[in-house]
Amino acid sequence: MPLVPMRQILEEARKKNYGVGAYNVNNMEQVQAIMAAAKETQSPVIIQASRGALKYSNFTYLKHIMFAAVEENPEIPIAVHLDHGNSLATVKEAISLGFSSVMIDGSLKEDGKTPSDYAYNVGVTKSVVEYAHKFGVTVEAEIGRLGGIEDGVGSGSIHLTDPKEAKKFVEETGVDALAIAIGTSHGAYKFKGSKELAFDVLKEVRSLINIPIVLHGASSVPQELIDAVNKYGGKMPGATGVPMESLKKAIQLGVTKINVDTDGRLAITAAIRKVFAETPEKFDPRDYLGPAREALKGVIAGKMRDFGTTGHSGDYKGISLEEMKASYK
Question: Is 83 one of the annotated active-site residues of the chain?
Answer without folding.
Answer: yes
